């Protein structure tokens, strides 16, 4: 079976307590702004409530050919999970597996994971005091050590920060507060995804122009 591609670009992490409005509506706004990957957190909810929320979020994403990833080992009837650094090891046998990492030692423990988050790149209001922050130079060093694609996470709120993370080698950025707390999630998502798309377009190899073949008699 072909494994699905790892997430890239702007990946949205949910937090219904931080969201300005209904969580599904906020996610729908972010999807309209270009987000195609969402990580469902909300781990304090009973499984039945969380599974129902997963159904609603998948319905939003499927129209945009997007993917819902569930934080924790239970995929909630889906096929994609994002695991904490603490475990479980080995990962569950599902279609797509990510893991949170913070340093070289945690990267060295990776097995069959498809991608990782590295955090915190900058101080974050979601987890104050968590760190110390990697900053772009620390992110760059760990990206070079990672055997799988990296999403930068932590305090990423501006296009300039997205640029710094991509220039450090990240395949994308994971964003929570900038979109969850936004008065206009669509506009914020569009600004962040737009700069990522521009950077990747600039980095894409350009086709080599063909040399014209001389015609006889010229």
What report would you give on this structure?
This protein is 34% helix and 17% strand. It has 218 residues and is α/β, with parallel strands linked by helices. Strands 1-2-3-4-5-6-7-8 form an 8-stranded parallel beta barrel, surrounded by 4 helices.
Widest sheet: strand ordering: 1-2-3-4-5-6-7-8
What overall geometry do the principal axes of the alpha carbons give? globular
Strand content: 15-25%
Give the tally of β-strands. 8
Low-confidence stretches: none
Q: How do the helices and strands follow one another from N- to C-terminus?
A: EHEHEEEHEHEHEHH
Number of helices: 7
Work out the helicity level. Answer: 25-40%
Mean pLDDT over all positions = 92
Major β-sheet profile? 8 strands, parallel, barrel
Alpha-beta classification: alpha/beta
Distance between the termini: 55 Å
Round the Cα radius of gyration to an integer and report it.
19 Å
Topology:
Blueprint: E1 9-13, H1 23-32, E2 37-40, H2 47-62, E3 67-71, E4 80-83, E5 96-101, H3 104-108, E6 115-118, H4 135-145, E7 150-153, H5 159-167, E8 172-175, H6 177-180, H7 185-203
Parallel strand pairs: 1-2, 1-8, 2-3, 3-4, 4-5, 5-6, 6-7, 7-8
Helix pairs in contact: 1-2, 1-7, 5-7
């Amino acid at each position: 079976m072909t494994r699905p591609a790892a997430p890239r670009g702007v990946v949205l992490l949910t937090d219904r307590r931080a969201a300005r409005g209904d969580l599904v509506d906020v996610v729908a706004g972010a999807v309209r702004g270009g987000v195609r990957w969402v990580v469902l957190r909300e781990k304090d909810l009973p499984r039945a409530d969380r599974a129902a929320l997963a159904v609603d979020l998948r319905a939003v994403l499927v129209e945009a050919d997007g993917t819902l990833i569930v934080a924790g080992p239970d995929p909630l009837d889906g096929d994609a999970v994002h695991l904490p650094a603490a475990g479980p090891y080995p990962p569950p046998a599902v279609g797509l597996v990510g893991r949170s990492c913070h340093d070289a030692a945690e990267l060295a423990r990776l097995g069959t994971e498809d991608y990782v988050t590295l955090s915190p790149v900058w101080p974050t209001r979601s987890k104050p005091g968590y760190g110390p922050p990697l900053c772009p130079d620390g992110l760059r060093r760990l990206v070079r050590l990672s055997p799988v694609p990296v999403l930068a996470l932590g305090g990423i709120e501006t296009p300039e920060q997205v640029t710094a993370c991509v220039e450090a080698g990240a395949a994308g950025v994971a964003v929570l507060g900038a979109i969850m707390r936004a008065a206009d999630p669509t506009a914020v998502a569009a600004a962040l995804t737009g700069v990522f798309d521009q950077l990747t377009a600039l980095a894409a190899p350009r086709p080599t122009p063909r040399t014209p073949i001389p015609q006889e008699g010229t």
